[in-house]
Amino acid sequence: MSLQQTYPDGRVALAEGVVLDDPRFTNGDLAPVPVERRTWRTYNYLALWVGMAHCIPSWTLASGLVALGMDWKQAVLTIALANLIVLGPMLLTGHAGTKYGIPFPVFARASFGLRGANLPALVRAAVACCWFGIQTWIGGEGIYLLAGKVLGHGWLTAGQVAGTPWTQWLSFLVFWLIEIAIVTRGMETLRRVENWAAPLVIVGALVLLGVMADKAGGLGPLLDQPSRLGWGSGFWKVFFPALMGMIGFWSTLALNIPDFTRFGGSQKAQLWGQTLGLPTTMTLFAVLSVLVTSGSQAVYGAPIWDPIALSARMSNVAGALFALLIVMVATLSVNIAANVVSPAYDLSNLAPKHVDFRTGALITGVVGIVIMPWKLIANPHVYIYTWLGVVGGLLGTVAGILIADYWLLRRTRLSLADLYRQGGRYWYTGGWNLRAVLAFLVGGVLAVGGSYSTVSDGVKQGPFPVGGVIPALKPLADYGWAVGLGSALLLYLLLSLPGRGREA
Question: CA-to-CA distance for 105 and 138, rounded, in angstroms?
């Protein structure tokens, strides 16, 4: 008797009467989504990406590249190319979510084993917790400045705790509570939030552009500012690590996109929704950020890249409140979708009997507070090269293994029930696929082992040695995501060829 049924559109569900009853590997949040509940359409994925891409770190990506010496055209080109590249693995991994209704950590069980899947899941969860903290601090800053516009100067100059006004710490906590309140209500609530947040953020960004252009009497001198790097060797030395960093920005979602595509009404919906949503939105947002910033240079005499700081400079209180509200909505929509959903599932996968989606979300929230993530974005050298580069390298390694296993070895055929039970096809060696672990370790070392810190004005930027952690691997460090994905994919295939005849 077959344990699963395939629908005419290719989606797969458990056969009627099949029960997943091992609490070590399943709960209500990790089980496959029934076909009748897979209702997300193209607009839902488009809105999801618009909501996630329109965030403060996305806005400031171009500024980080300009700070490294690029002009605005080079910065926008780098961002556009990076998002086209990362879209590929995102669509490939997203396919499994829509076909089988499973989240990322369950999908990873096919290649890493039922227990081994916790390795990539926890790596992904750790990254998401850091991002959650960064975005929550940014959202809290928006509340802090918005309240300052209403309550006056005393709110902004309150007594300090650890070098920061206590009112800003309070704003951080308030924003944190809002996020947790939304995410603990489940994925359907998240879908509704994204649907209304996406158009609101677009309108708000365009209004901000209109205000700046009107005040500036034009778009300012920034568009005419030449590149400090030119288009020669100086540019390419910065371009490739910057490209890997930009890929690293969304390499997180290239892994856990099944957490969202598992609700897809069809493969066409997730494919078109993501293709229309990610590269176009990120590129247009980068252009928008450059235009608004150039306007700020004409108005205020210096470019203001941070939209929160720019909003706070507005003399019109109503306009400033509207701008800050948009900033907070944008931050809220991206943080919940990109940085809470994944670790909530990942932590639930670690101990399904004790941790459900809501508990995982709460754990994410706590970890996001205690890691003090605001230090990560203080320096563009650290932010782009160290943080995004290293993260991208490690996550690219996992993506390579998932793609090799699902597309090249199994040809998208999985045994759904065996993803949830001991002794099945994905049990391997005590729940671990040692081939995947080895490919992950080797690919990870190749991708990030050569990580190094740059030197600016005689000062080392970042925590790594200038010559690289492993000097011999330093030449690979600038291509970390590509090296990780390619090397892990090839090594996993080579290691798996002797067992190619095994079942799906």
Answer: 28
